[in-house]
Structures
1.
Amino acid sequence: MQLRSALAAFAFLAAAPAVQAGPLTATEILRQFNVVTTGNFSSNSDVEGRTVVGGNAVGGATFFNNPGAAEASEFRALTVYGSATVSNPLNVNNGGGVTIAGTAAGPINTNGGGGRSIGGGPDAAAPNPLPSFAETFVAPLSALSAELALMTANSTLPGAATPGFPNNVPITASAGEGLAVFNVTVAELSAFASFSVNLNGREGAIFNVTGTSYTGQANFLNATSVARDVIWNFVDATSLDFQRQWGGTVLAPQAAVRNHTPIEGSLFAASYDGRGEMHSQPTRLDFRSSDPVPVPEPASLALFGLGLAGLGLVRRRQRAA
C-alpha cells in the first residue's frame, strides 16, 4: 500500500509542469530579435529587426528599418546592456525606441518615437526593470544550441561524386516528417562553390557544424527562400566570416561573427562586426512545445529526485519490517 502511494506521489510530481528557466524561450527570442550578442556589437550596415547587445555598441548602424515578420516584444528595437561608445549617430526607425543601460558617446535618433532610456533616464527602460541579460538571453539560446547538437543526424551532405560538384550542389533532406538534421564539418561546408538547400517536405533543417573557424565563400543559391526554416548551429566555432549571402538562423555562442553581404535570419554570437546587412527573417521552427532533445528543467529534476528519495525510503522501511 505504501509503495503504491509513493508511486502515485512520484507520478504526480513527475507530471508537474516545468518551471520556466527565464522570461523568454529560445523560440521567442529568435522570433523577436534579429541580433543578440553576448559581447560587443559593431556595424556599418542596417539591422532590420531588433538588436540586443550584452556588451558595448562600438559601431553605428540603422536599426529596425524593416522588422518584417518579427513578433511583438516588450523590448525596444535597440537594447544595449553596456554603453554606446560610437560617436557617429545611431538611427532607430519605425518608433522602435532605444534602451542603453550605460552611457552614449554620440547622438541617437529615435525616428518615430518609441521611447528612449540612456543610463536609466529620462524614460523608464523597456521592459522595466531591464532583466538579467544572462538569464533572459544567454541561457535559453545556449541551451538550444547545446540541445540541437545532441540530435541524431537523419540526412547527409552530398559528396564529391555529385554531378557538377562543387557547383550547384543540392543539399537534400532525407524523406520523412519533422526536422532534417545534418552533422557537418567546416571542411565539408567549405568544399562547396555554390549550393542550395532542399527541405524535401520536411518542416525545417538543423545543420550542426563542427570546427573552430569558417569562411563562407560559397553562393547560397536559395538563401532567402529557406531562411526561416533553417538553423545553422556552429557548436564550437570561435570565428565566422560570411563573405556571401547566407540564409537561416545562425547560432554561434562562442564566435566572433563578421559578414560582408546580408545574413537572412537571426544571429546569436559572442560578438558581431557587420559589414553587410542583417535581414529580419524570424524562424518558423518552434521549440517551445517540446525540446529537440528532452532535457528536464532544473525544477523537474529536483522533483524527480524527491520522488526517487521517497521510493527509496519506503523500500528501506519495508526491508526493515
2.
Amino acid sequence: MDAHGGFWFGRPRSEFFASGDGKAWLDAQFEQVGWELEELLDRAAYFAPDAKRVLVGYPRLVPADTNKCLAPAPGQTELPLADIPQDALPVLDQIQKRLNDVTKKAATDADGGADFVDLYTHTGSNTACDAADRGIAGLLENSQIGGDGQWLPWYAHPNEKGRDIQAQHVADKAEEILNR
C-alpha cells in the first residue's frame, strides 16, 4: 500500500514487526546478530587471551517523546528523521532498544564475558530529535564530508556533540576496566 498511508503489506506499520512474518524475520535477524557478536568476541579471546574485550552499543536515535521529531532542529529545514511517520518512530526505537539488548547479552554470554558500553541508555537526551542538544544528526542534515556544495547527509550518525558524548562513555569504561 501507500508508504505514507500507514500500512505495510496490508497491516498497520506498528504491527508488522510485532507479529507474523515481520516478527519472524526480525527475530531471526536478532538471533543472527547475537550469534555473530558472540563468535567475534570468542575469536578475539582465542587469538588475544589477555585482551580486555569491550563491546560498544548504539546511541539512541528516537526520543521517548516522539513529538520532538515533528520540528526541524535549529538551523535545519528537514525533520530530523525525514519522512518516517511519527507512529513508526516508537517501533524504530523498540527495534533499536532490542538491538542494544542483544549486543549487551552477547557481551555477557561470550566466553569469559566482555564489557559493554551502553550508549543507548546514556544518550536518551541527545537523540536526533533533541534540537540543539542532539548528538545524532538528522537523516538529511548535511555533514562535514564533501565539498563544493555537495555535502553528504549524516544519515543519523553522531554529530560532533554525539561523538564527544559517546567517546567519553567509552573512555570512562576503558578507564574502569584498566583500573580493576
3.
Amino acid sequence: MRSLTLVPLIKKTVTVVILLALCFFIGRIYQAEQGAPLHRWHSWHADEMSPDEIDHASFADYLLREEAIFRDMKISLNDRLDAAEKTAMNRYSAQSRVYPARFTPDWNRSFILRPDKKPVGVAILLHGLTDSPYSLRDFAENYRQQGFIAVVPRLPGHGTAPGSLTAISWQSWMATTRLAVREATQLAGRTLPLHMVGYSNGGALAIKYAMDSLEDSTLTRPQQIVLLSPMIGVNGYARFAGLAGWPAWLPAFARTAWLTVLPEYNPFKYNSFPVNAARQSWQLTQAVQSQIDQLSRRKKLAALPPVLTFQSITDATVSTSAVVNALYHYLPVNGSKLVLFDINHAVTISALFRNALPGAVDRLLPPAPRHYDTVILSNETPGTLRVAARVTAAGEVSEKVQPLALSWPQNMFSLSHIAVPFPLNDSLYGLYPAEAERFGISLGAMGLRGESGSLDAGTEAFMRATSNPFFDDMMARVNQQIACRDRADYVACVRALP
C-alpha cells in the first residue's frame, strides 16, 4: 500500500523536473538568440590531430599538420567571407589591419627559440585558453637570452578560429604538452634542466604534466614550474556549461553552443567563447585538483619541483583562492613561492571598491608560518603609488617590507587575469606600446569614451588591464631561479632566494 501512495509523488516530481528543464532550455534559447549572429569563423573548425595521433607524432609532424590547418582556413574561411564581413578590423579578412598573416612572424603558430650559444636548459611555455603563443613570446625570449631553448606550441583549437574550440578536448592539450617536452629533450638531451611555464589554462597543463612525471618514469621531470594566472580552479558555472549548449544539437539553436559572441578584432586571441571551452577547462581543473589530492595522500608530492606563481588578487577568469587552497596548501617545503599582486590602494576611486577587495590578500592567505614563501606587491603606504614587496619566508611569521623602484600607473586600480604576462610596452596589449599599431591595433593603450551600448564589443574589453607594471620585477624573480639551474642543491639555492 505504501508503494502505491508514492506513485503520485514520483509522478509529480518527474513532472516538475521536466517543466524546470523545459523552462531552462527555453530561457537559454531565448538568451542566446538575443546575442550577436554567428559567422563562418564560429562554424569552421581546424582538423587537429587526436590525442593519440599527437602522442605518436614528432614535432615536425605536428608543424606539418599545423601548416595544413592554416592553408585550409584560408581556403575555407578567409577566402569565403561575405562582402559585409570584410571589415578593416576583422582578423579573418585578408584586407583588414589585424589579419594575422600580414605579420612576420604570425604569432598564432608554434615556434622554437634557440640561444646564440650552447644551450644550458630547455623551457616549455604553454599559453592560455582562447589565446595563442603570442602571449608567452616575451617569456620565451627571456629564456632564450638566459641560454635556454624555448619551445612554445600552439595548443590544439587555438590560433585559428573560435569554432575550433567547439571540437577539442583538454586531453589534446595534454598530449601537445608531452609532445613539446619530447621535442625539447630531443633538441637538448635529457641531462639539461627542464623548466615549464604555464599561463592560465597552460598553468593547469604545466602542473598536471609535472604530477604525471612523478608517476611515469618515461616523462622528463621538470626542474622548475612557473605559473602565470594559473587555472587551478574556475567559476562554478563552468561545471554546468555543457547543459547550456544542449539545444545546439538542433541546427536552429546553434547559437546556444556559445557563451559569448563578439567581433574578432584581436589578431592573436579569440573574443568569442564557446560552451565547450568552458566545459573542457572545468574538466581539466577537476583532473588537476583530484590528482593533487591523490598524490598528497600517497606522499608523492614531496618530489614535485619548486613552483613559482604570479597571481593577481583580482581575477575574473580563474579562482585566486584555488591557487592557495587547492595547490599551495599541498606543496612540500621545496622553495615554492607565491607572488600576489594586490589592488592599488592609492587610486582616487578607492572608495568605490567592493567591500571585499581591501584586505583581500590577508584574508586569502592562511596565517603564517606557511610552508612556502609569499610576496605581496602592494602600495608602500596607502596614499602613494610607490610599490613595496611584503615578504614572508617559508616557516617564518614575521613580514619584511622591501621598497621597490616601481609604481602603479596613475589610473590603474588593479591587475587582471590577462595582464600578468605582458610588459607595459607590449605593442598589442601594453599601456605604453613600444610600436603603436604594430599589429593593426594597440588594445592596451585604447582609452575610448562614448555612449554605452554603441560598440559591438563589450565595454569591459577596453577597461580591463592588459599589461603588467611589475613585469620587470616578475622577470627578475624568474631569472633568479634560472640562475640556480646548475647547482647540485637546486632546491636549497631556490629556498635561499630573497
